[in-house]
């Protein structure tokens, strides 16, 4: 007997409809994803006057941290230094935790995939400002 699985919990196959980058381009891409002249990430408001960037930003940052530092720490960040909820730290930790156990090469490949996805036509307006 198989357990009932909700539609939202089923593994979804994603059709790649965007440009894919080679792992050899990792160094160039990882240096450019935070460049404020070319990548104007949107800021999404959160309670308490804080703002976070879109999920794709944290996916890219988590891939870089996995390449440079390896697996994430055991504890998820909760609070900022001024006592507010750490939305940025928590979003980064959640994305980084998804990469736990991946090698540097696998994390680089994940970065290149996520980079292409973030810049795709379908997601560009969700991730970036026009001005």
TrEMBL record:
Keyword Endoplasmic reticulum assigned: no
Molecular function GO terms recorded: fatty-acyl-CoA binding
Superkingdom to which the source organism belongs: Eukaryota
Pfam families: ACBP
Protein name (Swiss-Prot/TrEMBL): ACB domain-containing protein
Source lineage: Eukaryota, Viridiplantae, Chlorophyta, Mamiellophyceae, Mamiellales
InterPro entries assigned to the protein according to its UniProt record, in alphabetical order: Acyl-CoA-binding_protein, Acyl-CoA-binding_sf, FERM/acyl-CoA-bd_prot_sf
Alphabetical UniProt keywords: Lipid-binding
Domain ACB per the UniProt entry, residue ranges: 50-112
Protein family: Belongs to the ACBP family.
């Amino acid at each position: 007997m198989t357990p009932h699985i909700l539609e939202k919990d089923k593994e979804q196959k994603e059709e790649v409809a965007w440009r894919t980058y080679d792992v050899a381009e990792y160094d160039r891409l990882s240096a450019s994803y935070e460049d404020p002249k070319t990548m104007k990430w949107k800021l999404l408001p959160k309670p308490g006057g804080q703002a976070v960037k879109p999920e794709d930003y944290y996916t890219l940052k988590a891939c870089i941290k996995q390449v440079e530092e390896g697996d994430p720490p055991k504890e998820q960040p909760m609070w900022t230094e001024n006592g507010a909820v750490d939305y940025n730290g928590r979003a980064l930790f959640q994305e980084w935790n998804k990469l736990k156990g991946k090698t540097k090469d696998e994390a680089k490949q994940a970065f290149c995939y996520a980079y292409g996805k973030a810049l795709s036509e379908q997601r560009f307006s969700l991730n970036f400002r026009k001005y």
